[in-house]
Amino acid sequence: MALLESFRIAWGAMLTHKLRSLLTMLGIIIGVGAVVGMLAIGEGYSRYIDAEFNSLGVGTFYVNPSVDRDADDETLRPQLTAANAATLMEPGRAPAIDLVVIELNRNGVVSAGGERFLFGVKGVTPGFFTIGAQELGDGRYFTDEEDLASARVAVIGQNVAETLFGGIEGSVGQRITVNGVQFEVIGVSVAQQSQISGAFGRFSDPGEQVYLPYRTARDRLFRNDVTTRVDVSSLTVRARDVDLIDEAIRQVTEVLREEHRLTYQANDFRITNPAQLSAQFQAITVGFSAFLGTIGGISLLVGGIGIMNIMLVSVAQRTREIGLRKAVGAKRRDILLQFLIEALVLCLAGGAIGIGLGYLLSFGGTFVLYTISQDPNIRASVSLFSIILATSISASIGIFFGLFPAIRAARLDPIRALRNE
Amino acid sequence: MTDLIVVKNLTKVYRMGDVEVHALRGVSLTIREGEMVAIMGPSGSGKSTLMNIIGCLDQPSDGAYNLDGVSVADLNDNQLAEIRNQKIGFVFQQYMLLQRTTALRNVELPMLYGGKGGSRHERAMAALAAVGMDERMHHKPNELSGGQQQRVAIARALVNEPRIIMADEPTGALDTRTGEEIMGIFQKLNREQGITVILVTHEHDVAQHAERIISVRDGIIAGDEPVQGRILAGATVAAVATEAEAMDEVAS
Ligand SMILES: Nc1ncnc2c1ncn2[C@@H]1O[C@H](COP(=O)(O)OP(=O)(O)OP(=O)(O)O)[C@@H](O)[C@H]1O
Ligand SMILES: [Mg+2]
Fold this sequence. Notes:
Chain A: This is ABC transporter permease. Chain A: Belongs to the ABC-4 integral membrane protein family. Chain A: Keywords: Cell membrane, Membrane, Transmembrane, Transmembrane helix. The complex is a heterodimer. Chain A contains twelve helices and ten strands. In chain A, a hairpin with a 4-residue loop joins strand 2 and strand 3. By secondary structure, chain A is α+β, with helices and mostly antiparallel strands. Chain A is elongated and about 105 Å long. By secondary structure, chain B is α/β, with parallel strands linked by helices. Chain B has a domain of 175 residues: P-loop containing nucleotide triphosphate hydrolases (Rossmann fold, 3-Layer(aba) Sandwich), CATH 3.40.50.300. About 5% of the residues of chain B have low confidence. The interface between A and B is medium-sized, with 21 and 23 residues. Adenosine-5'-triphosphate (ATP) binds next to strand 1, strand 2 and helix 1 of chain B. The site of magnesium ion (MG) has 3 residues of chain B, from helix 1.
């Protein structure tokens, strides 16, 4: 019998029992919807995490002067200095790295002549502005020369500019005092705060910062606030290549231990690798996927059994029809195919509605992702792959669970079937 | 005329647990091509069982059955289905039409499983015309009277141009007048197209439309005689005769 005819019959049978068909499909609809939605949201979330970590700087890691709490050594004191940073950059010491940025983070009283405000003060080496998602609103960043010369120049964050000067415009060239020391504003940074920077103890909003050359900050503002053991808040190290990050961490550890003359002791510094955290964040996706995947799987199983059940009912109700078809020449294969295609059409229709449900879930996912990322590019979108996957799953369920009823129909004895009341 | 159906010592035993039911206990008969035969007998005598075997819906327990020179006992399921599709048209007491399907589509049904070529649509319409139902081809069974439904069923039996039409109590659910019309159609098909017609009936009046009556009793043949004073369905036959030409045109 022509396949097309079987599909036509199956379609007709489905439409004659609209409500029954819909209820039968429910498991498939929910299952497919959960799978499609899961894939879309998981993908979107994963992209979001990637984007967040990229905004921190690709291939970078942090070194802080901090002793591991678990280190069973009372005498160990944190140690990390600008001299260490210089040593790391000496040729041959840590060949896997290509940049070390020094940060010294404090607070300061900032004023542009009138009212005084408390803002974060970051003494940084100029390399700071080359890492991660930096954006200059106006003016320029300071240079290595200005850093080495402890020049009294400042780059201010957006909110600082707004507080002091009512906006970014006109801020460059103004004079401000930080803890009583005069600075010239040479640039305004409009960098946005990363959503996950808090995970590294970096809660400071870049808009609320005054950026000074590191040496200026250390020597002119916080001289009494640093020691020979610790005169930096952190070093940000960039590996030559993302793939070299583990090697870079190993080399940095080795150099610092050597410089700090550590032998059997634990580290007196701590290295944080965002990539590792990224993996942990990505693991959330796995948990989420497993959750929706389980719901999807159970629904699909229940849906498949529902299909089998309704097909058995259908075979029983249409016994006489089967007998008649056999009497007029239908072979077993024809009957088998007809009922198999009916199960298939039911499942595919359920799958199609399920894909629609998946779209709805993905819209919800996009809304949530936008709410946390504020980035319209981060979307939970249904991929062609998941549509193909959903369609194949639906088809497989139709064939798998439709096979038993179809075989039953095909095996019916025509005489008994015809006599059936 | 050639022998179309040759049955020898046919037996059929149904086993229901420990009980054996001998539905047929050695039936031998020959039906020639173009005959119109009625099978009569009391209830439970084995008429339907015999019809089912002759119609290739069932296989005998023992005995030989040759249909058109082919030994049916040697055929497998698929080959039996093919014979039913190509050589035999069935008409049932309960019409057996697909309820949610138009007359036309019902008639097209056998062609889904193998046809003789040509447009399904045209062949189905010609078959409906041959039974005078072409004007109702888009009606569904529940919009038709019993007699009309049985005509559609006959059109379905005709559509693949079978050698034999087998009808188990085709008038059993109809009133006398309508039954007479149906018998007229069978006579016309038998006379004009040479189709062999085998029908089962309880009613003597109906059997009198055939040329020959075979009586079955307790699973054996108790009588086999030509009909004396055969009834020819008159006026009603003439009414549908013109439509038969339409059928012939398409067929040729
Ligand atoms: N599938 C079956 N299983 C068991 N016994 C059967 C089966 N089919 C028929 N029989 C038995 O075989 C015998 C003949 O049945 P059959 O249907 O051929 O009778 P019939 O002459 O057609 O009767 P009726 O006029 O009532 O239709 C009966 O005794 C019946 O009970
Ligand atoms: Mg019977």
